[in-house]
Amino acid sequence: MHDHDPTAQLVKMANQIGSFFQAQSPDNATMATDAIAAHLKSFWAPSMRLQLIRSLEAGGATHLMPIVASAVRSHRANLMPGGALDAADKREQFPQGGGDAG
Fold first, then answer.
1. Residue 14: which residues within 8 A CB-CB, separation 6 or more?
2. Where is the stretch described as Disordered (predicted)?
């Protein structure tokens, strides 16, 4: 029986994102970390971001690329779910009267 790390798939996906943005900005780590964090914020569910943050802070996510770990740590406040930025994102996505409900 093998141990299943519930964060392993998130780490794999985050590393793919990290590899892409690191290749886009090989000489600019700040630009790459900003882009990684922006991608996670825009395309990952808040619960996924929280799981990755908690795992990293607890000493898990050991296979996370250093640039991805740096992006998560340096942009932690923005990546945390439930903050003002998540609320602003929802307002922008579904402005008053502009939701998809009939």
1. 36, 40, 52, 64, 65, 68, 72
2. 82-102
CB 85 within 8 A of CB 79: no
Question: Taking the mean position of all CA atoms in its chain, how far away is CA 26?
Answer: 20
Report the pLDDT averaged over residues 71-83.
Answer: 91
Q: How many domains does the chain have?
A: 1
The full DSSP string for 45-97 is -HHHHHHHHHHHHTT--TTS-HHHHHHHHHTHHHHSTTSHHHHHHHHHHS-TT
- pTM of whole model > 0.70? yes
Cβ distance 34 to 70 under 8 Å?
no
| 3-state class (DSSP) for residue 2 | coil
